[in-house]
Write a structure and sequence with these properties.
Blueprint: H1 3-6, E1 15-21, H2 25-28, E2 40-43, E3 47-51, E4 59-60, E5 71-77, E6 84-90, E7 97-99, E8 102-104, E9 109-111, E10 115-120, E11 123-130, E12 137-144
Parallel strand pairs: 1-12, 3-4
Antiparallel strand pairs: 1-11, 2-12, 3-5, 5-6, 6-9, 7-8, 7-10, 10-11
Family: Belongs to the TIFA family.
InterPro entries: FHA_dom (IPR000253), SMAD_FHA_dom_sf (IPR008984), TIFA (IPR033621)
Domain FHA: 49-121
Length: 186
């Protein structure tokens, strides 16, 4: 047998990629305490806390509008499954946290979707889970976004198109409800 065949099987590690954005990051430097250069390894039983208090939080944000402990992320294994996940909990009494439009009040928690946007105040964090098999630890990899992650999109009002694909020649007016058209009337 070669040494390649005898080598230990390499475990892949679950990694939580977090991309941070704040409109004032250029002048206020609120992310200066975060390490964007390398992956950080955490024990599976560690809780990753984010907030203003660097003595309590592993990930410190330098901003007086951020709570001492804003939120936490807990790595866990789902019951009766080999699947791993993260749970996010809002630990701020003053600021609500939203995860993909789901609003979390103080001490509310939910499972973190595999890809989502976490918002509080003017902060936007894109969270993406890269799955792995390691049981004893996970990693975080922090990134800095230059542009807003969540953008307000103004969608034009859409005009219904009949099944035959031909748009009616009359425009739908403001406040008028759409009228059903029989195929034979065209």
């Amino acid at each position: 047998m070669s040494s390649f065949e005898e080598a230990e099987t390499e475990e892949t590690v679950t990694c939580l990629h977090l991309t941070f954005y704040h409109p004032g990051q250029g002048e206020k430097m609120m992310f200066r305490c975060l390490d964007f250069c390398r992956r950080q390894q955490l024990r599976a039983d560690d809780t990753a806390k984010f907030g203003r208090d660097s003595s309590l939080c592993r990930y410190s944000l330098v901003d007086t509008r951020v709570s001492r402990i804003q939120f936490s992320l807990q790595f866990y294994r789902k019951l009766h499954s080999s699947e791993y996940a993260f749970e996010i909990k809002n630990l701020s009494k003053k600021t609500k946290l939203t995860v993909n439009q789901t609003e979390l009040g103080y001490l509310n928690k939910i499972d973190l979707p595999w890809k989502c946007i976490i918002c509080f105040g003017d902060y936007q964090i894109l969270a993406e889970i890269q799955e792995g098999e390691a049981v004893d630890y996970f990693e975080t990899h922090l990134h800095l976004a230059e542009a807003p992650i969540l953008q307000e999109k103004c969608l034009p009002s859409l005009q219904p198109i009949p099944e035959n694909g031909i748009s009616p020649s009359f425009p739908l007016g403001q406040g008028k409800s759409p009228t059903e058209i029989d195929e034979n009337e065209l």
